[in-house]
Amino acid sequence: MAPIPIARLACFERPFTYTGVDYFGPILVNVGRHKEKRWGVLFTCLTLRAVHLEVAYKLDVSSCIMCLKNFMALRGTPREIFSDNGTNFKATEKLVKEELVKIDFDQIAVHYEAIKWRFNPPAAPHMGGAWERLLRTVKSFLKTICPSSNFNDETFRSALMEAEFIINSRPLTFVSLDTSDDEALTPNHLLLGSKAGYKPVSGNVADLRLRWHQTQSFADRFWKRWVKQYTPTLTRRSKWFTKRPPVGIGDIVIVVGDNLPRNL
Question: Is the pLDDT of residue 156 over 90?
Answer without folding.
Answer: no
